[in-house]
Amino acid sequence: MSKPHSTDDILQQHINSDYKYGFTTNIEIDTAPKGLNEDIIRFISKKKNEPDWMLEWRLNAFRQWQKMEEPHHWANIQYPPINYQELIYYAAPKQKKRPKSLDEVDPELRRTFEKLGISLEEQKRLTGVAVDAVMDSVSVITTFREKLAELGIIFCPISEAIQEYPDLVRKYLGSVVPVTDNFFAALNSAVFSDGSFVYIPKGVRCPMELSTYFRINAQNTGQFERTLIIAEEGAYVSYLEGCTAPMRDENQLHAAVVELIALDNAEIKYSTVQNWYPGDKDGKGGIYNFVTKRGICAGKNSKISWTQVETGSAITWKYPSVILKGDNSVGEFYSVAVTNNYQQADTGTKMIHIGKNTRSRIVSKGISAGKSQNSYRGLVQVHRRAENARNFSQCDSLLIGDKCGAHTFPYIEVKNNTAIVEHEATTSKIGEDQLFYCQQRGIDPETAVALIVNGYAKEVLKQLPMEFAVEAQKLLAISLEGSVG
Amino acid sequence: MTTQITPKLISRQLSERYQQLAAGMPATAGFREAAFQKLLQQEVPSTRHEEWKYTNIRSVWKKLGESAGETTAAPSPHWQGDALKVRLAGGQVVEPAEVETANYIVCSLKKAFEKHQDKLQAYFAKHTHLQDDYFVLLNNALWSDGLFVWVKRGQTLPQTLAVFFEEGQSTLENTRHLFLLEEGAQLECAYFFTGDSPIHSLHNCITEAYLAKDASMKHYIAEAEAFHHSRVLRTFADVEQNANYYNVTFVLGGHVARHDLCAALKGTHAEAHFYGLTYLRGNAHTDHHTVVDHIAPKTQSNELYKGVYDGQSAGVFNGKIYVRPDAQQTNAFQSNRTILLTPEASINTKPQLEIWADDVKCSHGATIGQLDEDALFYLRARGIPKAQAKALLLQAFAGEVLDYVGNDSLKEYLLARLQERFS
Hints:
The complex is a heterodimer.
Chain A: H1 7-16, E1 29-31, H2 38-47, H3 52-67, E2 91-93, H4 107-115, E3 129-135, E4 138-142, H5 145-149, E5 154-157, H6 158-164, H7 166-172, H8 183-191, E6 196-200, E7 209-215, E8 226-231, E9 236-244, E10 251-254, E11 257-262, E12 267-274, E13 286-297, E14 303-310, E15 315-318, E16 321-324, E17 330-339, E18 344-347, E19 350-353, E20 359-368, E21 373-382, E22 390-399, E23 405-414, E24 420-429, H9 432-440, H10 445-461, H11 466-479
Parallel strand pairs in A: 3-7, 6-8, 7-9, 8-11, 9-12, 10-13, 11-13, 12-14, 13-15, 13-16, 14-17, 15-18, 16-19, 17-20, 18-21, 19-21, 20-22, 21-23, 22-24
Antiparallel strand pairs in A: 1-2, 3-4, 5-6
Helix pairs in contact in A: 2-3, 3-8, 6-7, 9-10, 10-11
Chain B: H1 12-24, H2 29-41, H3 57-63, E1 83-89, E2 92-95, E3 98-100, E4 104-108, H4 109-115, H5 117-120, H6 134-142, E5 147-151, E6 160-166, E7 172-181, E8 186-194, E9 201-211, E10 216-223, E11 229-239, E12 244-251, E13 256-265, E14 271-280, E15 285-294, E16 300-309, E17 314-323, E18 331-340, E19 346-355, E20 361-369, H7 373-381, H8 386-402, H9 408-422
Parallel strand pairs in B: 1-6, 5-7, 6-8, 7-9, 8-10, 9-11, 10-12, 11-13, 12-14, 13-15, 14-16, 15-17, 16-18, 17-19, 18-20
Antiparallel strand pairs in B: 1-2, 3-4, 4-5
Helix pairs in contact in B: 1-2, 2-6, 7-8, 8-9
């Protein structure tokens, strides 16, 4: 293809370049009827073969949810009301039984994940990454389970964990994000269908990256997954999640809950590369990504680190947070959020300092292009008894074009005089001189922007595991394609 | 004396007061009526209201009129600098009655409504950011008096205008002030809040300033310590091309003090400068909400707010900067620095940038910490006692803001007030 000459050409090219993962898979699916009521919840629970306590837990969440109001005022996002009775709350690819090995997985499903670049074939992997592949409401397959089990690590779909490790699930489920935490968390608690469960026993360092890949396929469905990660004393785990969805004209809802628990000396690293379908150039379609993610550093010297690269979704509403309860615990949040066209993102973090000598670090890089709105919203809270708490926050925004917006809403609440809290934020655009410098050296504007943006986001990208960092860099370039002008 | 004021209902007393005021100033009756009707639909904001999240104004409202016991602090001396002095007590302008020359007018707003309608009509209550919030409506309906200041094109008010507010003479005071600066006009004005009446009172004070092209206004606000007087102080400046609004606010503590300071930069090269120093002790609570709205291109704003919190005092800072789509090549800087001296003191900070233009330079920074241990050690190693070393460091910290006070006599006065606090 010849090199585009004008801004219009570049834009045109971008508009025509499709969202790479926008295809659908033709596969027979098992769905629940439309709508939400107690019967649907019983249906989901029965499908999952759940014990009674789980059904009760869900029904309680549903009753609480009915009393709650959808938050519409505080976040800097706008969308038409969602009709929760029009959604389908359970959709699963038809499978006779849970496959024991890869050979038993429906070839169509395997092809789907291959097309997405997710290899489910263990032996072919160069580096060991164990994958839990989730399609719509259920987990398709989890790789490397046996190998991990030798170390006592549990990595399985949460639906299985509910049956096989009910004590663990009962102890921790909802302990970090209570059922009534917020509207979408309550909804998730009532109807979640699958997700990953990770348990790292005392003193074990997980030898490979654990990963979940989420795929929405079916139409008119919502995806509600639930992830629970527990790192026992001295354990370590690095967990990745990725996600994509087909291109559809209507908006689809994704309301997940992620809970992390780190006990004494444990460390959890959670990385996300979020690439849900962002909608087309006119802002039609796309995923509403309303997610509650929270970790608790329950033990001494524990550490939780969130890294996120947010490029997809029509609307992103998520605040991965850390409750720093254990003394000397550490919380980190690294984020790159890119919005283009009509995307809206309201994302950030909460660092709640409760224990002594707790430390937190926030690095947030927002990039807005097109007609998008990108907001950072964060809270740093130092409680009365959190002696010697330390926080450093940096949130930078980069604006590309004059039709987009960049906003920062940092809340800082300090109730202890030994705390040291620093916050800084800047907003700027890509310098003409930087662009000129690159172009003078024969780099075309598109590549130059990608280069500059990657440099800008480097501090966050370097936190990602290697394979993901490469993906994320490419993703940044694609998301911003055609935004120079 | 206990006045029955509930959050939900406007008391009969307020209702009567409103009718009296409307009858006394027929020119404002329609305006008051509209505000009063809206006010009846609203209630005093609770902490669930985002703008009042950290300041419980409702609890202040409930305490109004209650006896607060003996006043312990000796009242600070008044500033004695060379100035045109105006005194307001009980919500009324007490002195002087009127100063009017061809170049400027300083009189009570009540009088201005009789004599200078032609001048004020186009401006009074017209500020873009003057929204229908509870205290604005309350003021619209119930303002009793205030200042009207007009400076003619190209003229300068020859003396600093010093406005002394004596608070606490009635439980609820609503005052209203209007500054009109024609093209190239200049003025310097200082507000002083005093009063030591032993009842809980609230002063709801709205100032509107309209700065035409090339005009410049220096506005100083000084609050002495007053344990029972609370204050909702709102200042709205409308800044046209090349005009400059400059504000330094100095707070030594009231019971609850809420400051809303807002500048709309409407013409190219318009500027707003906000500087604040807050030094609280006891149970004092101060809430600074600032808004700088960059509407026109090439506008500039600079904000520096510093705070020192002792005792169980609490501070709030919420600084909003808006950069509208057309306001290209804007520079906006904001900084908020806080020192907490005791374990019971607290601070809530929320700097907020909302930007819709791409060719801008905007930044904000916030720090919260303590006195530098190394610096303290350095001084003590040189034989300076701890208390004195601390005072020195605090003075240096505060000094940065004091330096922005352009009036030397006023600066000395403020420094003296600050030094009283250190000793």
